[in-house]
Specification:
By secondary structure, the protein is of the alpha+beta class. It is built from 18 helices and 21 strands. An eight-stranded mixed beta sheet has the order 5-4-3-6-2-1-7-8, covered by helices on one side. The chain has a six-stranded mixed beta sheet with strand order 15-16-14-18-17-19, sandwiched between helices. Strands 9-10-13-11-12 form a five-stranded mixed beta sheet, sandwiched between helices. It is elongated and about 115 Å long. About 10% of the residues have low confidence. It binds adenosine-5'-diphosphate and magnesium ion. InterPro entries: HATPase_C_sf (IPR036890), HATPase_dom (IPR003594), HSP90_C (IPR037196), Hsp90_fam (IPR001404), Hsp90_N (IPR020575), Ribosomal_Su5_D2-typ_SF (IPR020568).
Length: about 575
């Protein structure tokens, strides 16, 4: 027969499990207690804005105090406090939070979010404390202050407290093996890590130790370039200034705020490991967002703050999560938008950033169809074209000039390598510029050192050559060939006769003094430059580079990162 029922839980058995295994990391108890204190202060603000509290709210702050003799650590806030009923409801019942009810009641009364949610954080204090006491007075008129005490067994006591000011003090008597939390340096460090951007001053030994201001929660239009740079320096001290940044802020279809920077590639920049800090409501969660941001953006740094990223699932589940994937797409799109904006508004800056970013952009294009569509027109290549010669007749190649007083000027150091006067071009510009000379043909060089003479030859023939000589370019050329099926891509050292010699003109006399034909002159020049009696042209070279066709571009990233590290 069918039987139905409710599973029951024995507090005595489950309580030790909650205490020991709620979180893998003991130190997060501080984050939990400080976030409760921040919430209590936000709540008082909201109640006051709703006109339900008319008293003086004073300077709202959190104080952390250490008593080494008594082996106690206490966290005090002057927030909303709790009545005896609230203590019974929200503290005595595990997994019971006041957050939802509160937000519902005071909706729109705060621009700061309430952090709490699950009603579990408070109990993390038992991971480090043998005894936890609460001393609290509610802001409500006529409330009686309450003292709650629990020694880690499921039994507690509640009695009256002599407290006279609204707010709450949580006092932990630490377990013998957790006395490291009596060191103020340790506490300061933890506050810096987890609570730095919480919007309330946190004091330790009378001194405010958190930054409070979270720039990523500002509207982008309120932040100056200097403020973005200052935030970068704050997060990554002693690092060169970033190449560019994007400010993430959207409420739909998911909530995310953040600022991501693309660093300058330097040997001391470890790009193999994600360096983005993940926050949830300004509370630090983790140092690693690898599952969230698209792989080709691994070198990016900065901050992501979202309540829509599931935090209690495994990393692989995170990667499969639909919202997380959408967030990844959104980030890629923001980066693409930023690149396009830079390309349009400041080509010089774009080109100099390209030297560091280009590889990753190409990698993104190979891997991400949407990103490809978005930025394919702004992929640039170094070229042999000379602007001075071409400017009058065709679309000029982009020439990098000295950086003049524009917004981006001081973003990169002036000691750039020789970008200045190195021209770059898009494929479209290249094809347009050379339309009459060689329609739908592209000549490219994959290795400047070994193909220099071929490049020279092409230049002497008035043919423009693109440099596709980074390690990702072998794959990128395959991609270009697939994308531009009507364009013939020819490596400078392959297929020499067809390439360099217009067959019709091969026999044309070009040197009236010696009666030498075009083909003879070229051959001579070529042999001379190679200092070899015979020219050995490698037509199959490209194919042998890549015997199994294009490998999935994904396998390239470790290689890219390895090489960048060696740079
Ligand atoms: P959560 O923060 O997710 O709600 P907690 O276990 O951390 O869960 O706290 C449970 C409840 O206890 C909170 O929702 C709040 O109502 C109450 N509480 C905890 N700390 C404080 C405090 N410092 N001031 C006022 N209320 C508090
Ligand atoms: Mg909490």
């Amino acid at each position: 027969m069918l039987e139905q029922g409710t599973i029951s839980i024995h507090t005595e058995n489950i309580f030790p499990i909650i205490k020991k295994s709620l979180y893998s990391d003991h130190q997060i108890f501080l984050r939990e207690l400080v976030s409760n204190a921040v919430d209590a202060i936000q709540k008082l603000n909201m109640v006051s804005r709703a006109g339900e509290y008319t008293g003086d709210i004073g300077e709202l702050e959190i104080q952390i105090a250490i008593d080494k003799d008594k082996k106690t650590l206490s966290i005090t806030d002057n927030g909303i406090g709790m009545t005896a009923e609230e203590v019974k409801k929200y503290i005595n019942q595990v997994a019971f939070s006041s957050a939802e009810e509160f937000i519902h009641k005071y909706e729109g009364k705060s621009d700061q979010p309430i952090i709490g949610h699950f009603g579990l954080g408070f109990y993390s204090s038992f991971m480090v404390a043998q005894k936890v006491e609460i001393d609290t007075l509610s802001y409500q008129q006529g409330a009686q202050a309450v003292h709650w005490s629990c020694d880690g067994s499921p039994e507690f006591t509640i009695e009256e407290s002599p407290r006279t000011t609204h707010g709450t003090t949580i006092t932990l008597t630490l377990q013998a093996e957790e006395e490291e939390f009596l060191e103020s340096a340790r506490i300061k460090n933890l506050v810096k890590t987890y609570c730095d951007f919480m919007p309330v001053p946190i004091k330790l030994e009378g001194e405010v130790i958190n930054k409070q201001k979270a720039p990523w929660r500002e509207s982008p239009s309120n932040l100056s370039k200097e403020e973005y740079l200052e935030f970068y320096r704050y997060l990554y001290p002693f690092q060169e200034e970033p190449l560019l940044w994007v400010h993430l802020n959207t409420d739909y279809p998911f909530i995310i705020n953040g600022i991501l920077y693309f660093p300058k590639m330097k040997p001391d920049v470890d790009v193999t490991k994600g360096q983005i800090k993940l926050f949830c409501n300004q509370v630090f969660v983790s140092d690693n967002c690898e599952e969230i941001i698209p792989q080709f953006l691994t070198p990016m740094r900065g901050v992501i703050d979202s309540t829509d990223i599931p935090l209690n699932v495994s990393r692989s589940a995170l990667q499969g999560d639909r919202t997380v994937r959408k967030i990844g797409d959104y980030i890629a799109k923001k980066v693409g938008d930023r690149l396009k904006e830079l390309y349009r508004d400041n080509r010089e800056q774009y080109i100099s950033a390209w030297k560091d970013l280009g590889t990753f952009v190409k990698f993104g294009v190979l891997n991400d169809e949407k990103f490809k569509k978005q930025i394919e027109d702004i992929i640039i290549f170094r070229t042999t074209a000379k602007i001075a010669e071409k400017a009058a007749t065709a679309t000029p190649a982009v020439e990098v000039q000295s950086q003049e007083g524009d917004v981006w000027q001081d973003v990169t150091s002036p000691s750039q390598e020789s970008t200045s006067s190195t021209p770059y071009t898009t494929l479209k510009e290249y094809l347009e510029r050379n339309k009459e000379r060689h329609e739908n043909r592209v000549f490219y060089c994959t290795d400047e050192a070994t193909q220099a003479t071929y490049v020279e030859l092409h230049k002497n023939q008035g043919l423009e050559v693109l440099f596709m000589d980074s390690f990702i370019d072998t794959h990128f050329i395959n991609f270009l060939e697939r994308e531009y099926q009507d364009v013939k891509f020819t490596r400078v050292d392959s297929d020499l006769d067809n390439t360099l010699l217009d067959q019709d003109k091969a026999g044309e006399i070009v040197d009236p003094k010696t009666n030498k034909t075009r083909s003879e002159v070229i051959k001579e020049l070529f042999e001379k430059s190679l200092n070899k009696p015979k020219v050995n042209i490698r037509t199959e070279a490209l194919k042998s580079d890549n015997p199994h066709g294009t490998p999935p571009a994904m396998v390239l990233l470790p290689e890219i990162l390895r090489r960048l590290r060696e740079m």
